[in-house]
Amino acid sequence: MLDADHAHRRSVAVSPAASETPHPSRAEAEAAVRTLIRWAGDEPTREGLLATPARVVRAYEEWFAGYRCDPASLLSRTFEEVGGYAEPVLLRDIPLQSTCEHHMAAIRGVVHIAYLPNHRVVGISKLARLVEAFGRRLQIQERLTVEIADTLARVLQPRGVAVVVQARHECLSSRGVRQHGVSMLTRRLLGEFALEPQRREILAALAG
Ligand SMILES: Nc1nc2c(ncn2[C@@H]2O[C@H](COP(=O)(O)OP(=O)(O)OP(=O)(O)O)[C@@H](O)[C@H]2O)c(=O)[nH]1
Ligand SMILES: [Zn+2]
């Protein structure tokens, strides 16, 4: 029977982001958390912190679940009976939860996605799952934006793709320059959406 570590390791191995170095064991990951607690100035053996390393490692499994997911396969089921629908499909305000790869601090925001179907559409939940698959990794916002847009373009082969990401970075607010209320906006427009006047129209529609 596979234990959770083994299953985790095996699934991570299929991730394009996985390296060739052996995946650390759960015990090693928990030991690393104990080191960070000591680095922060506290004592990992006190009662309130005893179960914390195990909790943090479980939390990491959720925050970084994207490494165990193949984003392209999320879009494999499509529907062709769309009654001739050939207008853009827009999904606004998809929640984004990610982690900044420079400081491992939270990135929180929303993603707006539009695509111009080429005879087939994808279930709308799959667009939200795509955001999760790339969001739940160590990211910079620019690459996240490109990865979402390019995967949609490659797998669905629509006539156009537009992705807008608006997010706040905790590394900007809770440390460093400590700038609160700043949000970062990134976007990627492909195919017909990269051309005027469609570009202006789709950006206005995504902005709501
Ligand atoms: N372009 C981009 N920068 C990001 C993102 N997330 C964090 N950063 C920035 O990455 C930079 C890392 O800069 P460094 O100078 O190496 O690190 P640092 O000394 O911790 O920087 P400060 O945050 O300015 O204290 C910082 O300017 C962050 O604001 C992102 O998604 N995209
Ligand atoms: Zn950061």
From TrEMBL:
<comment type="subunit">
    <text>Homopolymer.</text>
</comment>
<feature type="binding site">
    <location>
        <position position="103"/>
    </location>
    <ligand>
        <name>Zn(2+)</name>
    </ligand>
</feature>
<dbReference type="InterPro" id="IPR020602">
    <property type="entry name" value="GTP_CycHdrlase_I_dom"/>
</dbReference>
<dbReference type="InterPro" id="IPR043133">
    <property type="entry name" value="GTP-CH-I_C/QueF"/>
</dbReference>
<feature type="binding site">
    <location>
        <position position="171"/>
    </location>
    <ligand>
        <name>Zn(2+)</name>
    </ligand>
</feature>
<keyword id="KW-0862">Zinc</keyword>
<comment type="similarity">
    <text>Belongs to the GTP cyclohydrolase I family.</text>
</comment>
<dbReference type="InterPro" id="IPR043134">
    <property type="entry name" value="GTP-CH-I_N"/>
</dbReference>
<feature type="binding site">
    <location>
        <position position="100"/>
    </location>
    <ligand>
        <name>Zn(2+)</name>
    </ligand>
</feature>
<keyword id="KW-0378">Hydrolase</keyword>
<comment type="pathway">
    <text>Cofactor biosynthesis; 7,8-dihydroneopterin triphosphate biosynthesis; 7,8-dihydroneopterin triphosphate from GTP: step 1/1.</text>
</comment>
<keyword id="KW-0479">Metal-binding</keyword>
<feature type="region of interest" description="Disordered">
    <location>
        <begin position="1"/>
        <end position="27"/>
    </location>
</feature>
<protein>
    <recommendedName>
        <fullName>GTP cyclohydrolase 1</fullName>
        <ecNumber>3.5.4.16</ecNumber>
    </recommendedName>
</protein>
<dbReference type="GO" id="GO:0003934">
    <property type="term" value="F:GTP cyclohydrolase I activity"/>
</dbReference>
<keyword id="KW-0554">One-carbon metabolism</keyword>
<dbReference type="InterPro" id="IPR001474">
    <property type="entry name" value="GTP_CycHdrlase_I"/>
</dbReference>
<feature type="domain" description="GTP cyclohydrolase I">
    <location>
        <begin position="30"/>
        <end position="202"/>
    </location>
</feature>
<keyword id="KW-0342">GTP-binding</keyword>
<keyword id="KW-0547">Nucleotide-binding</keyword>
<dbReference type="Pfam" id="PF01227">
    <property type="entry name" value="GTP_cyclohydroI"/>
</dbReference>
<dbReference type="InterPro" id="IPR018234">
    <property type="entry name" value="GTP_CycHdrlase_I_CS"/>
</dbReference>
